[in-house]
Amino acid sequence: MTAPATPRPSARARRERALLILEDGTVLRGSAYGARGARFGEVVFTTGMTGYQETLSDPSYAGQIVVQTAPHIGNTGA
Predict the structure, then answer these.
(1) pLDDT recorded at residue 13
(2) Domain range for residue 51?
(3) Residue 18 included in any domain
(4) In-domain check, residue 8
(5) Are 41 and 63 in contact (CB under 8 A)?
C-alpha cells in the first residue's frame, strides 16, 4: 500500500503577493504575475476586445502600466 499523495497547492495559492500603491496613497493588494520587482509608471487602460498582443508590444506604452479591460485574454475558439 502506498501513502496518499500530498495535495499540491493550486497555482493561485503559489502566486506571490503584490501591492499596487497609487499616487494618493491607496494600496491595492493582489497576486503577482510576470516580472517581479518594484515598478512605477502611469496606469493606462485599453478597452479593445482584440489586438492585445499589439498593445502589449507597442513601444508607445513604454513606462506605463497597461490594464486590459477585456474579461478574457488569450486563445479562444471552438
Answers:
(1) 59
(2) 41-78
(3) no
(4) no
(5) yes
The DSSP secondary-structure symbol of 60 reads G
Question: Which pTM value belongs to this model?
Answer: 0.59
Residues 6+ apart with CB under 8 A from 29: 17, 18, 19
Q: Is residue 63 part of a domain?
A: yes
Q: Which among 2, 40, 37, 1 has a CA at the least distance from the CA of 16?
A: 37
pLDDT in tens, the chain (78 residues): 666 666 666 655 577 899 989 999 999 999 887 778 888 889 899 988 888 889 889 999 999 988 888 777 666 665
Asked if the structure places residue 25 within a domain, the reply is: no
Number of domains in the chain: 1
Measured distance CA(54)–CA(45) in Å, rounded: 14
C-alpha cell recorded at residue 36: 517581479
